Automatic annotation (TrEMBL):
The keyword Oxidoreductase applies. This is (R,R)-butanediol dehydrogenase/meso-butanediol dehydrogenase/diacetyl reductase. It comes from the Bacteria. Residues 8-349 form the Enoyl reductase (ER) domain.
Length: 351
């Protein structure tokens, strides 16, 4: 079968690989769509910076390079292994790709998304979504309602990242938010906030294309922080109070700084983006004087998948051409370069 396979840093090949064989407790999927994620770009360009060890077997999965990529994906069950009872051939599913050890401090507390040795199917595993087929534990698939198609279902994973981040802040209907960064996660934050009844949302994004994309899905208060006055926009939107929660979905220092400057007293900055550089914070100014909270969010839990799929079934998400484009497996190496250069938004690979 055809697959996009990472062999080493900056060595990604499209090649024929053996079709996987289903084992007891697993299902075999005919993959439909797989999203290319920022984590895939980190794995390709800077694996060490993203905390990925490409030299040694993964401590949970035992997998090592070469690695089929694709951890944001959907598919249809074509075969079930021995002992599988709650999933059937023909089921359309979104894949929950997270592997956890089950024994570390995080796992014992139910926080498997921050497992000390976390792994992902399609990043540190035996297969992935950027291939015609994969096999995975039956417990790692979520069946889809009839009105959620496989293209939208491939977005459950990144949308669950954003849903988990919003949920962690406890933001409620009637409150206000700032989103710094209108990439796929920024758009996911917008969808999740709207699903919770939060309508007063300011979006900060320097890219004209990304501003247009988030405006196309409904955002009305979208600001260019380079040429416009973000502080004035926040003040106008909140009657001078500042926002209750500021989300960093950009992964750059100015996003954190602008978030801190935009907060109401007692507000929260949540970082959901990966940063490549350190950010300077003055504890007295940025934390103590406003009783400010700074926190982070990583990944998702099964309940976030369930919530996103339910919200999708209610029509609260869309996979429009405004922010989604498609590619073939053969095009993946070129698309990775395009994404790094900021030339495309969210790309779904047709498997």
């Amino acid at each position: 079968m055809k697959a996009a396979v990472l062999h080493a840093q900056e060595d990604l090949r499209v090649e024929d690989v053996p079709e996987p064989t289903v084992k007891p407790g697993q299902v075999k999927l005919r993959n439909a769509y797989a999203g290319i994620c920022g984590s895939d770009l980190h794995a390709y360009f800077d694996p060490a910076g993203a905390g990925l060890d490409l030299e040694n077997p993964h401590p949970v999965t035992g997998s090592r390079l070469p690695q089929i990529l694709g951890h944001e994906f959907s598919g249809t069950v074509v075969e079930v292994g021995e002992g599988v009872e709650d999933v059937a051939v023909g089921d359309r599913v979104a894949v929950f790709p997270l592997y956890s050890c089950g024994t570390c401090a995080a796992c014992r507390r139910g926080n498997t998304n921050v497992c000390r040795t976390i792994g992902f199917h399609g990043l540190t595993s035996h297969g992935g979504g950027m291939a015609e087929y994969t096999t995975i534990a039956a417990s790692m698939v979520h069946r889809l309602p009839e009105n959620v198609d496989l293209k939208l279902a491939a977005l459950v994973e990144p949308m669950a990242v954003a849903w988990h981040a919003v949920d962690k802040t406890g933001i409620a209907a009637g409150q206000s938010a700032l989103i710094a960064g209108a990439g796929p996660i920024g758009i996911g934050l917008y969808f999740a906030l709207r699903a919770r009844g939060v309508d007063n949302i300011v979006v900060s994004e320097p890219s004209a294309d990304r501003r247009a994309a988030i405006a196309a899905v409904g955002a009305t208060n979208v600001v260019d922080p380079v040429t416009q006055d973000l502080a004035a926009a926040v003040a106008e939107a909140t009657g001078g109070d500042g926002v209750d929660v500021a989300f960093d979905a950009a992964g750059v220092g100015p996003a954190v700084a602008s978030g801190l400057a935009s907060l109401a007293p007692g507000g929260t900055v949540l970082v959901v983006a990966l940063h490549e550089r350190t950010v300077e914070i003055h504890p007295t100014v940025h934390l103590v004087m406003g009783e400010t909270t700074i926190t982070g969010a990583l990944g998702y839990l099964p309940k976030d998948y369930t919530a996103v799929i339910e919200a999708m079934s209610q029509g609260l998400y869309e996979a429009s051409d405004a922010w989604i484009s498609e590619a073939t497996i053969d095009e993946v190496p070129a698309v990775v370069q395009d994404l790094r250069a900021g030339k495309r938004m969210k790309v779904l690979v047709r498997a």
